[in-house]
Amino acid sequence: MDKQEKLRRYLKGLGRLAVAFSGGVDSAYLLKTAHDVLGNSCAALTVRAVTFPPRELDEAAAFCKSEGIKQYFIDMDVFGIDGFAQNPKNRCYICKTAMLKKMRDKADELGIEHIAEGTNKDDEGDYRPGLAAVAEQGIISPLREMGMTKAEIRQYSAALGLYSSNKPSFACLATRFEYGQRINAEDLGRITAAEEFLTGLDLTQVRVRLHGDMARIEVLPTQFTLLCENAQRICGRLTELGFSHITMDLAGYGAGGNLT
User: Can you spell out the DSSP letters for 56-122?
Assistant: First the structure.
């Protein structure tokens, strides 16, 4: 039995399920598979917060609408989460715990026992304090349990014709801040606008990391030339947004780049 069939059988056995749906590669595949198996017994729960750009939320909503999936938005004031703005090294754990508790409340309201999220097998090797929150809140991770890797999920998604199959990886905007640097709404807005601008230049996998008032831009090494060709335009726009120094990271894009 292949991994996809094992996943379908596993999901079918859950009865009713809520999927934490961000619109990303993993959660889109999980939600699509769960809805195919469970039909109206599957619903999507999507957190709406300033740490997620509007384009991600719009894309998630469009997907649910096109697939006929019931979607419930959960509005979250991240600055009301004790410790979030101070940005300690366990910030992801603090924030994820608060969000999952809100999801649990919504699932209980809907009479749904199980909540699933999209962690995959590859995520086990990364520094992800949010995974502790997932375990503590009793959230299940079917893709990880089936041993599915990111590459496999992209392959399965492409076979299903999902919009997300070649979508760049995305992480919450709070990851753009160095640990210990205070997070505020103004800087989140600047980062969102900067990344939107860079994406509009056909730069695909982009991060704008914040170091004080300096923006450190990460792109894939294969797109260094494109970044440099647009250097004048980029500097002009990011200066307008209030960044005093704009730099290019010669190491290129890397998950967890805010840790150093």
Answer: HHHHHHHHHHHHT-EEEEEE--GGGSTTTTT--TTHHHHHHHHHHHHHHHHHHHHT--EEE----GG
Q: What is the rounded distance in angstroms from the CA atom of residue 29 to the CA atom of residue 3?
A: 13
Task: Please give the CATH architecture assigned to the domain spanning 173-259.
Answer: 2-Layer Sandwich (3.30)
Taking only the tens place, the pLDDT of each residue in 26-78 is 999 999 999 999 999 999 999 999 999 999 999 999 999 999 999 999 999 99
Sketch the domain layout of the chain as residue ranges.
3-160, 173-259
Give pLDDT tens digits for 28-39: 999 999 999 999
Helix, strand, coil proportions of the chain in percent (round to 5)?
50, 15, 35
Per residue in 216-232, is it b (16+ CB within 10 Å) or e — as a string? bbbbbeebeeebeebee
